[in-house]
Amino acid sequence: MPEAATGPLRKAADSSVLVVGVGAWHGLGAAIARRFAAGGHPVVIAGRNAQKLETTLAELKKTGALACSVVGDAALPQNIHVGHVVVDGGIAGDRLLSRNPQLRERRGEDGLLDPDAIAEAYWNLYHQQRSAWTLELDLRPWNESF
To answer: How far, CA to CA in Å, does 144 sit from each of 88, 103, 108, 118?
Structure first.
């Protein structure tokens, strides 16, 4: 396991994670919440749609996660650590695939970004070494054509 910003990986139980912008279970926000919960962190999920949050919270709890939800909209965040993540491609989540069901087949293998893979990148951003760290990531699908 990599060293975290303060030595060995932060004790998960000592560090809860707030994930803002959570909606559908197969969306990016939920994937990030799943990843941090799998790492042992208590998670708080926040989003605008109470029904989607309830569904996502129930699914998180089925995995054994310590989780709660808050309905609200994020505006003017203060006193938080900010990471800038550029997601440059389609995310293979409920929103995109429900609107364009054939897109995954048209793009082919590795043509869309997997929400769980994006969540893993967030995890790595959070647990990076102090000697070589970044606050920005650019994520693209593997088979992107330039």
So the answer is: 10, 14, 10, 16
CB 104 within 8 A of CB 115: no
Proportion of the chain above pLDDT 90, given as a percent: 60
Residue type at 9 in one-letter notation: L
Alpha helices in the chain (DSSP H): 28-38, 50-62, 94-99, 103-107, 115-126
pTM attached to this predicted model: 0.60
- In tens, the pLDDT along 21-48 reads 888 889 999 999 999 999 999 999 999 8
- Structural domains present in the chain: 12-74+118-128 (3.40.50.720)
Q: In what order do the strands lie in the sheet with 17-20?
A: 17-20, 43-47, 67-71
| Residues in the chain where the model's pLDDT stays below 50 | 1-8
For every residue of 31-61, DSSP letters joined together read HHHHHHHHTT--EEEEES-HHHHHHHHHHHH
Q: Provide the 10 A C-beta neighbour count for residue 67.
A: 24
